[in-house]
Write a structure and sequence with these properties.
The protein is of the alpha/beta class. The chain has nine helices and eight strands. The chain starts with a strand and ends with a helix. Keywords: ATP-binding, Cytoplasm, Kinase, Nucleotide-binding, Transferase.
């Protein structure tokens, strides 16, 4: 039995979060940014002085994250960390803690609890393969590393000719390498996932593509 879930997986800075949030809004469904949970875990561990490779202690933190999602605002210990978790070094921390099986286990049920009767659009690295394997629609959303770095730089108002831009590109490539080669739930496109390359697409075009795919899936499953 397929779950009323659209699972969007893909690499860092591919735009999957923006697309997923807009698809959820268009359908009136709940939205889950699973990457935020791993970033929150990394940030919480850093704040507690716990090394990202300390599996037992990081998993304990993950299981009891004092987090609240209020619209676009994310609170950790009642502090707004919506921007703090988007820092590049916290992104690398998220990749580090995501390698730890105990951490992934601690966050698995928390992610599944976001599913409501209306439906759920979620984005991450293993939404379709591990968290919601019965999702009605699975998508692997990607773009070239250079395009993803350009998008991130524009968000941060960083010139594309700068050393900072090269640092962003290197970070994205390093995170791709880490996510694709981890032993637990590595990032990859599975055979039952639709490929959506947004390198040459606007956000609106990508959202329309996802909604069209879901509409067609819904008709074939009736």
């Amino acid at each position: 039995m397929n779950q009323k879930v659209i699972a969007i997986d893909g690499p860092s800075a591919s735009g999957k979060g923006t697309v997923a949030a807009r698809v959820a809004a268009a359908l009136g469904w709940a939205y889950l940014d699973s990457g935020a949970l791993y970033r929150l875990t990394a940030l919480y561990a850093k704040n507690q002085g716990i090394a990202w490779n300390n599996e037992n202690e990081v998993a304990q933190l993950a299981a009891s994250l004092p987090v609240e999602f209020i619209g676009q605002t994310i609170l950790l210990n009642q502090q707004d960390v919506s921007q703090a978790i988007r820092a590049e070094h916290i992104g690398m921390g998220a990749s580090a803690v995501a390698k730890l099986p105990a951490v992934r286990t601690a966050l698995l049920q928390r992610q599944r609890d976001f599913l409501t009767h209306q439906g759920l659009v979620c984005d991450g690295r293993d939404m379709g393969s591990v968290v919601f394997p019965q999702a009605a629609l699975k998508i692997f959303l990607t773009a070239s590393p250079e395009i993803r770095a350009e998008r991130r730089a524009k968000q941060l108002n960083i010139p594309l000719e700068s050393a900072e831009f090269q640092h962003i590109l290197a970070d994205i490539q390093a995170r791709d390498e880490a996510d694709q080669n981890r032993s637990v739930a590595p990032l990859r496109q599975f055979p039952d996932a639709e490929l959506l390359d947004t390198s040459d697409l606007s956000i609106e075009e990508a959202v329309k593509k996802v909604l069209d795919w879901y509409s067609k899936k819904s008709k074939t499953q009736v």
